[in-house]
């Protein structure tokens, strides 16, 4: 039982994010139901628990683990919230599954890395959908029943930003933020859409580079060449966002104007951008891989069409230039199709396109 809440917390998607967040909540005493399609993972959790490896140490959590085919059991629960933690390309059908079986009173919280709230809201209902922007988790599955985090907890910035689609601060958003405080720093945001775009920009400037070059996230944030490319990628993404009507916002504490100026060669702006990326690396440990690199190494589909591919398509539609974003997206597709190998030489080829 969970004395602090009125019911269980559900995670649909037991990948790295769902397993880590759900596992830490379970370890803190929250009743958690983790639903996933990887049968070996579910059975491992059932038999020996979920091993959580983090810079602070190791622990074993005991969430209740269900196979995907058991999702119909949700109709007999009274969850306080259901977090959608599936891959982006699985959003539509998984939202339909929640719409079919999740009791109508339970809010659905998207904890994914792109602009999917409207799709989820059209499926489960606008009034029950919230977004949770998660930045700086840096998690990966280590095998069935094991998840690892490669970034230290309680950094200087919130990890979770919880927002209503209408932008107002509500008691339920505050309750979800308080729940996630058990995992890491969490706040309520009144501008979910802007926070989503900022997180999208952060993803497109690092995860693709990590994937095509085979570098850890810490390497991307500390190498001179990858940081220079990340500046270009950030400027392109922020430029597309401005054209779409998103308010310019700080990215890693650096203003949109500074990212643009850094990409254009301004020495002072470049130094501020480089320092900001170095500060991100300070809370990381060695070995942390981006989600894109994890997918490519495991020969799974990536989320490139929601990240670099999305930015490149929107830029083309708007008549803007985003050659670095397009080059990274094209390389990831080639790796997925078996026409390119992961390798550091990709960095020079990206530079050639820009």
Protein described:
The chain is built from 14 helices and 12 strands. A hairpin with a 2-residue loop joins strand 9 and strand 10. The model has no long low-confidence stretch (mean pLDDT 94). It folds into 2 domains: 182 residues, NAD(P)-binding Rossmann-like Domain (Rossmann fold, 3-Layer(aba) Sandwich); 159 residues, N-(1-d-carboxylethyl)-l-norvaline Dehydrogenase, domain 2, CATH 1.10.1040. Helix 8 crosses helix 9, helix 8 crosses helix 12 and helix 12 crosses helix 13. The strands form 2 sheets. The chain has an 8-stranded mixed sheet with strand order 5-2-1-6-7-8-11-12, sandwiched between helices. With 354 residues, it is of the alpha/beta class. 54% of the residues are buried.
List its salient traits.
354 residues; 15% strand; Rossmann fold; 2 domains; alpha/beta; N-(1-d-carboxylethyl)-l-norvaline Dehydrogenase, domain 2
Short structural description:
With 354 residues, the chain is an alpha/beta fold. The protein has helices spanning 16-27, 39-48, 91-101, 117-124, 171-180, 192-213, 217-222, 224-244, 256-264, 267-281, 291-297, 308-318, 323-336, 346-353; strands spanning 9-12, 32-36, 50-54, 57-61, 64-67, 81-84, 108-110, 129-134, 139-143, 146-149, 160-164, 186-188.
Give the helices and strands, then pairings.
Layout: E1 9-12, H1 16-27, E2 32-36, H2 39-48, E3 50-54, E4 57-61, E5 64-67, E6 81-84, H3 91-101, E7 108-110, H4 117-124, E8 129-134, E9 139-143, E10 146-149, E11 160-164, H5 171-180, E12 186-188, H6 192-213, H7 217-222, H8 224-244, H9 256-264, H10 267-281, H11 291-297, H12 308-318, H13 323-336, H14 346-353
């Amino acid at each position: 039982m969970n004395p602090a809440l009125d019911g269980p917390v559900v995670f649909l998607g037991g990948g790295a994010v769902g397993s880590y967040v759900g596992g830490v909540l379970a370890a803190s005493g929250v009743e958690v139901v983790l639903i996933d399609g990887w049968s070996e993972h579910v059975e491992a959790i059932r038999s020996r628990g979920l091993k959580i490896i983090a810079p602070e140490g190791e622990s074993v959590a005991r969430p209740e683990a269900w196979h995907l085919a058991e999702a119909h059991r949700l109709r007999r629960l009274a969850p306080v919230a259901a977090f959608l933690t599936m891959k982006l390309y699985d959003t539509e059908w998984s939202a339909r599954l929640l719409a079919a079986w999740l009791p109508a009173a339970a809010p659905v919280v998207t904890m994914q890395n792109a602009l999917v709230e409207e799709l989820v809201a059209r499926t489960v209902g606008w009034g029950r959908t919230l977004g949770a922007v998660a930045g700086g988790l840096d998690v990966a599955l280590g095998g069935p029943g094991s998840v690892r985090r490669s970034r230290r907890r309680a950094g200087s910035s919130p990890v979770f930003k919880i927002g209503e689609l209408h932008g107002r601060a509500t008691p339920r958003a505050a309750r979800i933020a308080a729940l996630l405080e058990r995992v890491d720093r969490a706040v309520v945001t009144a501008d979910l859409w802007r926070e989503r775009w900022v997180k999208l920009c952060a993803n497109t400037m690092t995860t693709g580079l990590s994937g095509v070059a085979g570098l850890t996230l810490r390497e991307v944030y500390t190498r001179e060449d990858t940081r220079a490319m990340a500046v270009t990628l950030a400027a392109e993404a922020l430029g597309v966002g401005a054209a779409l009507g998103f308010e310019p916002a700080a990215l890693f504490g650096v203003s949109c104007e500074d990212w643009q100026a850094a990409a254009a060669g301004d020495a002072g702006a470049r130094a501020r951008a480089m320092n900001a990326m170095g500060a991100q690396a300070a809370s990381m440990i060695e070995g942390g891989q981006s989600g894109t690199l994890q997918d490519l190494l495991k020969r799974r589909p990536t989320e490139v069409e929601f990240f670099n591919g999305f930015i490149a398509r929107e830029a083309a539609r708007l008549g803007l230039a985003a050659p670095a974003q397009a080059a990274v997206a094209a390389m990831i597709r080639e790796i997925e199709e078996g026409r390119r190998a992961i390798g550091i030489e990709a960095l020079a080829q990206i530079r050639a396109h820009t």
